[in-house]
Amino acid sequence: MNAWLSVRERFWSFINKIFGKKKVKIGLYGPPNVGKTTLANKIIKDWTGEELNGISNIPHETRRVLRKKDITINADRSSLKLDIVDTPGLATKLDYHDFLKYDLSEDEAKNRAKEAAEGVIEAIRWLDDLDGVLLIMDSTENPYTQVNITIIGNIEARKLPLLIVANKIDLSDAKPSKIMEAFPQHTVIPISALKGENIEMLYKSIYNHFR
Amino acid sequence: MPHKCTRCGRVYDDGDVQILKGCSFCGGKKFYYINTKNEIRDLLSNIDIDNLDTRKKNFKKSIIDDREIESIKIIDDGLYQLDLDILMRRDEIIIEKKDGSYALYIPSLFKNINIKKR
User: One Pfam family name from the record (chain B) (predicted)?
Assistant: First the structure.
């Protein structure tokens, strides 16, 4: 039995060497409220048919790392198996006052800030365990932020494959070209995770970039 | 004369290849000369001799700030300041509590804990 396993492992290792990886772990990173969970849900729904919750207008809705394993995406007559790791929004400052305007009590808001801080640490720890990163940005916001520049610098230093996703292109004030100008050294894919706009191009890019 | 990128402010030495290729940080193609003589003249004219003591204090403070080691600062309940760069670069997590004391966390305690599998 062990001999058979060993032969099988060697066979797949040989196949992977020739045709590239067949399973990759991709992390969805970015500042809060840029649509990371919306995109994770879109990918999971498109390729598994499952519905996932956990989206709201309140920043830091995702405060724990969530992982969905074995999502197979197909492109160009070939397929790629993904583990999608949806992470909490990365921020440099967490202030419970920001949550009070969303009708949360003071205790709830303070607890949310604490959990969000824990979530940031957990998200960063996960970087050690990934094969690639989708960095999500809001096309209606200025891309030259400390968070974006720090994440990109660190991912480049780790030599992790990176795709930048310029989300929310369905909004009238979206300017994905600003993100392209800001980070010309990386591929930027403009999409709307909510409306599904240009999502096929993103799937093709994921397949080409991370396999 | 050194050249400064007009977009991100990164400075390159005279004759640096990146000036021809574009800024290695932001990709910007526009640079301007930095006239060091003018810069020194501006710097000198800005020194306020009457308030040297305050300047000294500010200088000391800036040195202390540069040596900050904490990855997370708890300013108050529900108020946190996170240094993403330190958190991403270092394995250890140093937390400055609101009373000024520090707590050091062993990274293995945080690694991949409580992963909710869907």
Answer: OapC
**Three-class SS state of A188:** strand
Interchain pair B82, A126: CB under 8 A = no
Chain B's closest residue to A92, CA to CA, is B82
The CA radius of gyration of chain A, in Å to the nearest whole number, is: 18
Residue % of chain B over a pLDDT of 90: 8
A143 belongs to a structural domain:
yes
Query: Residue A73: its pLDDT value, please?
Result: 87
The tens digit of pLDDT for each residue in A20-44 reads 556 899 999 999 999 999 999 999 9
- Which 3 state secondary structure label does DSSP give B17? coil
Q: What is the CATH number of the domain that holds A181?
A: 3.40.50.300
Q: Max alpha carbon distance in chain A (Å)?
A: 62
Q: Which domain holds residue A45?
A: 20-210
What pLDDT is attached to residue A149?
A: 93
| Backbone φ, ψ for residue B93 (5° rounding) | -120, 120
Does some domain include residue A9?
Answer: no
To which residue do tokens 């660190």 refer? A154
The answer to whether residue A52 scores a pLDDT higher than 90 is no
* Set of chain A residues whose Cβ sits within 8 Å of the Cβ of B95: none
Whole-structure pTM value: 0.70
pLDDT 10s digits, B76-110: 888 999 999 999 988 888 888 888 888 887 665 55
Exposed e or buried b per residue across A158-188, where buried means at least 16 C-beta atoms within 10 angstroms of its C-beta = eeebbbbbbbbbeeeebbbebbbbbbeebeb
Interface contact flag, A124 B117, Cβ < 8 Å: no
Count the residues in chain A.
211
How many domains does one find in chain A? 1
**Alpha-carbon gap: A204 to the closest alpha carbon of chain B (Å):** 25
Nearest CA among A40, A62, A26, A39 for reference residue A139: A39
Dihedral, CA atoms, A137, A142, A147, A151, nearest 10 degrees? 50
Please, what sign has the CA dihedral across residues B78, B92, A62, A187? Answer: positive
